[in-house]
Design brief:
12 strands; three-stranded antiparallel sheet; alpha+beta; 10% helix
Amino acid sequence: MILSQLPVGAKVREKTSGLVFLVGEHGHAGYQGTTLVANNVIGQACLDAPEQNNPAERLRLTGYNYYAFSNLHQWLNSQDRDWYSPAHEYDAAPTEENIASRPNFWDKHGYNAYAQRPGFLSWFGETFRQAIYESAVPCTNSQQNGLEFIKAKAFLLSTAEAGIRTSDPLKEGTRIAVFHDFRMRYATPSADAVANSGWQPAYFKAEFLFWYWLRTPKGNDEGFTCYAHNVNPYSYKFCCCPWLGIRPVINVDSSLPVDESANVRALYLIG
């Protein structure tokens, strides 16, 4: 059996990482192959660290919501340990020190720093990693207030792709088929995400729905980005918030072989 034969909503587990993905859609408009959406929140992180040397006061405090320049975009698309390089003149790495400089006067901990954490693509086996397409991902250009396409192998959902209606006239793609059922937007953290989190409230547990970043910025406010909420369809947060979840998307070769799991019903193995 190959991946393209699985229905939308089917679950596949990548063998090396153990990550479970939902089949989001085969042949989604603008993308190659099969779109896979992480079934769970795979961790917590800031979208972008505060940029303490930036002449713009807001960005010194909040980080930048221009997704193409974000720390998280860079981390998602690397397989290296030393993945960080400045995306612009005033960029700052997601270190504990930089994250702790965010505007939260009662809590100055540098939670979930990931500057020294190997890039996301390192999680996968070579066969699966080579099958991931580099996609042209539609994103809001926060500098020009227009739409652009950035190259990415792994990326965050946009509000449009998640089927969330907003007043933003810029539409970053179209709804991925799996989200025609709004319940598929909800996600719980994986057991590994909970175990590895530096922020451990009582409700960050594998059995509870949790929030995760989207790549859509808040209008013309360069310090805020949308996130998928567990009650409302979406809300906004400072880009430097270090406890929102990560739910990645990838596009992979539809001809990849898949096998039924011998131990878990309705789960397929890939890679």
